[in-house]
Amino acid sequence: MPIRDMQPTCENMQCMIDYSNAHLSKKAKEVKQVTRKALKQFNGSDINLLKRLAQKVFNTYIRMRDKDLPCISCDYSGIGRQWHAGHYKPRGGNSLLAFSEKNVHRQCSICNNHLSGNLVPYRANLIIKIGLDEVGLLESQNTIKKWSVEELQDIIKTYRQKLKKLQRT
Length: 169
Prior knowledge:
Blueprint: H1 13-43, H2 47-65, E1 83-87, E2 104-108, H3 109-114, H4 119-130, H5 132-140, H6 149-168
Antiparallel strand pairs: 1-2
Helix pairs in contact: 2-6, 4-5
């Protein structure tokens, strides 16, 4: 039993430890809950985080969509290589095409990373795959797009749904 006013515990050491643990764990839970809620709100509106997540979901979809196809550049279809979602027109100066299914195809890591996209055979195979007119449209695009939070959230939602459909078949 506490001796003084405003004293939360008695003089017993175990009583003080128990009170401290109970009080701290309650406070810690409250802080953790508030922090988690604030972080969730922030992450839902953080453009850079949403861009990375949208690109990750989109690239996963492309790799799944083209999983039975060879590399768009070198026609390699064996095992032992990583598979990427290779952009014909790079994302940097063509952010409008970052999420274009016609611009992105399955590509082996050798062509994508070590050969900088291996674009000459990529273009030839892309013409066979989507046609010369579509390749011409891709090549004429040089637009930088500023993606909004809502657009990125929509891209994430759309490609997650498309991935689920692919996984069912």
